[in-house]
Design goal:
It contains 5 helices and 2 strands, in the order H-H-H-H-E-E-H. By secondary structure, the protein is mainly alpha-helical.
Length: about 180
Amino acid sequence: MNLPNSITMTRILMIPLFLWILSPHFPWQGASGAQEIAASILFVLASITDGLDGYLARKRGQITTMGMLLDPLADKIMVTAALIALVAYNPQVVKVKTVVQIVSVVSAILAHRWDHWQIGVVVVPVKWYAIAAVYFTVLVSTISAVDYFVGFWKKIDHASKDRRQTAVLSRGKSVRIS
């Protein structure tokens, strides 16, 4: 197996680790934000490998049928696993986003064949709905990401304040020596 395909396989192997980090069984949960930081770092690393494997395959002339199959598959599995895990992890934001994405995908599929549907006197602009749904998906995804990171930073800020309070209390203690 060449290096680009090995990198792609590494991305696939990151998926169970990513899911474990977002699970309730992850040992570093709590106000420190370690769980969110670990999940974010792993997802970013996996995203970097996505670009790296393709770059190396082209640069080294190592484009293979296996790589052409595995690379997009790894991407889709990683993103799908993340979205599924986030439904349980942050359901109020992700469920709306998931519905919007479903509408977007279905309308884009239908727009591939039809520009519009004529149902009696009603004209349904399928292609326009697909375009609007894709842009709306981008908007909702952005809002979802902002909400996630705002929540994350609030946890970090709260943990930081707790640490500062503990440090002040521990320095302010008077110890009586007899």
